[in-house]
Amino acid sequence: MSFVWFMLAFFKDFLATPAFIVGIFTMIGAIALRKKFSQVVISAFKVTIGFLILGGGAGVLVGSLGKFQPVFQATYGLKGVIPNNDAFAGALTYIQAIVQIGSLIMVLGMILNIVLAVTSRFKYVYLSGHVLFYSSLMIAAVFLTLGFRPQSNAGDFAIVLFAGATLLASYMVISPALQQRHMNMITGSNEIGLGHTGGFGYALSGYIGEGIGKLMKTKVVSTESINFPKGLYIFRNTLVSLSLTILVFYMFAFLPGGVMYQLGKLSDKAAVDVLSGQNWLVTMFVQAFTFTAGVEIMLAGVRLFVGELVPTFKAFSDKLIKNSKAAVDCPVVFPYAPNAVLIGFISSFVAGIIGLFITMGISFAWPSGSPMALIILPGLVPHFFLGATSGVFGNIKGGIVGAIVGPFVHGLIITFVPLFFIWGGFVPATNDYLQTLAFTKELEGVSGKATGAFEVAQAAQKFDLASKDAAVLKAFFDEYKALIASHGITASGEINSLMHTVISTTDNNIMYYVREAAKLAGKNVDTVQSLNWGDTDYIIGLIPGILGKIPKAGKWIAFVTPVLTYISLMIDGLIKHFIDKKKSKNAPQDSNSGEKVEEKVQTQPINA
Fold first, then answer.
1. Which family does the entry's similarity section mention (predicted)?
2. Residue 329: C-alpha distances to residues 239, 291, 322 (Å)
């Protein structure tokens, strides 16, 4: 059984790595073109390494933002939920019940995506494996909140797996299709799609830009046509303009934060760690310019893999899936409008700041201490990637105004996505069962006795067993919950020390294990409660979540709906194929060549 889980973990990690996925598809395309072996290898390596360069650039950028965020929060005394998909997914991977079924949802979802690409009218193969993994974890967690227990019930396992995979696969073709109209305008071709969890917001930004373009009486001015005065000509260089803009952002946090640190008025450990590593002014400059370096690395990776991916994937689609398109990650559009990338990011972040104050006002409607009384802090990572991409979409028809308004609206939307998950009880912060799973996982690494005590205490509380030991354990469990609520020990050094003590002790007092393990789990409480999903497309998880709240039959409606959606997409595609084939047979013949007129005239690919 351990080998099975090892292979499952291997395929999960392999398929969650976009570089390997696109590398394989590129290799298939090159083989379909009957290229020489050396050319096949070169194509696959170029695309794989290009994607790794893209990921490396993203890592550099995220690392820089990781220095900014704690200083910003500590300087202005902000505490709340941070929408960050990478970090939240990372926290959920420690919960075995979620990650096991979530991994299988991703694998089956990718297979079902290929089936839809063949049978439906939406010919998209979704290649952004990392965001698919995050989405799979989100879907798995939502179904667990509806009462399904896949880790202990075979029927629930099959239901959650199939419902989750069909929901994911349907999303994998619908989201790129909604964006394709504007992707064609941006890239100047119909050969590549966009696969990212901000897709619904990108499409909305594109249509907002179109609306602005129609309303404007003067000629729409593209962000890439901004006329800089001669004295400011250096700002036409994207690298310079981005570096200076980000430096201003970082100064907004580091200057007051650094002064507070010097005066000994900054106590937040994460912020102090950033400011004390070296002279904080030097850190400010280094991290601001590191951000720009990350962007430049990403753009280099995009140029490398797109130049090789598009022609080989086209060959692959012509041979195996007619007219199919690769849906790739959002930075693919950055080189088409670098100024819009910067403008979109700033606009989205400003919307996030405004959203912060809106959620602050909403939080006053809840009692003090309620998990519902949460403030959503602007996460720089989603605001950069989603805002930048929305800027490119808004600019294509709406120019500068579109590049501002589209990302601004998108930035407001992603501020409220976490609230819907919190209010619905679809995340650990407001769902007792998911919290229990998180705490149990934390206990597994501490002591078998502690884990056993926790499980028995759960049973005692649930069934109210009459024995003396059960009553005692129930009291222990109550104390455990109280300690969790107080968040216990948070300093990493203390946690490591306590971990060693708990593991090495021979004390048979179970209460000791429960109490100390509860303190350890307090660190995990802070993590899962302070993070959340942050992209527009995560609303797909709200569909089964909301349907599942319908009295009596809700959980079954949540299961049936994605399955029927998937089947409907297949049937619709097959009907379209039959109608198109019938029209093709009935088309008039060209008297000179004997070819069908319709096929001869149609030279441009048709967007589904």
1. Belongs to the UlaA family.
2. 22, 19, 22
Say how far apart CA 120 and CA 116 lie, in whole Å: 5
Any domain includes 25: yes
496: pLDDT confidence band, cut at 50, 70 and 90? very low
**Residue 606: inside a domain:** no
Could you give the 3-state DSSP secondary structure of residue 232? helix
Choose the weakest-confidence range: 45-59, 438-452, 531-545: 438-452
- CB burial of 414-448 (b: ≥16 within 10 Å; e: otherwise) equals bbbbbbbbbebbbbbbbbeebbbbbbbbbbeebbe
Between the two ends of the chain, the Cα-to-Cα distance in Å is 44
Residue 337 near residue 223 (C-beta atoms within 8 A): yes
Do 129 and 15 form a contact (C-beta atoms < 8 A)?
yes
For residue 437, the enclosing domain spans 433-532
In a domain, 593, yes or no: no
Alpha carbons 459 and 385: distance in angstroms, whole number: 45
Is 512 in the same domain as 546?
Answer: no
Say yes or no: 58 and 102 in one domain: yes
Give yes or no for a contact between 262 and 11, defined as CB atoms under 8 angstroms apart: no
Domain count for the chain, please give it: 2
Same domain, 444 and 421: no
Closest CA to 70 of 286, 243, 269, 278: 269
| 526/544 same-domain check | no
Element spanning 375, H or E? none
Q: What angle do CA 542, 544, 548 make, to 5 degrees?
A: 110
pTM of the model: 0.71
**Nearest 5°: CA angle at 345, between 342 and 349?**
145
Q: 339 and 438: one domain?
A: no
End position of a domain, from candidates 487, 513, 532: 532
Rounded to whole angstroms, the Cα distance separating 492 from 496 reads 6
Residues 247 and 228 in one domain: yes
The Cα–Cα gap between 174 and 127 comes to 14
The answer to whether residue 235 scores a pLDDT higher than 90 is: no
d(CA 460, CA 69): 43
CA distance 176 to 209: 18
Eight-state DSSP code of residue 128: -
Is there a domain that residue 332 lies in?
yes
Phi, then psi, of 604 in degrees rounded to 5:
-100, 140
398 & 438 share domain: no
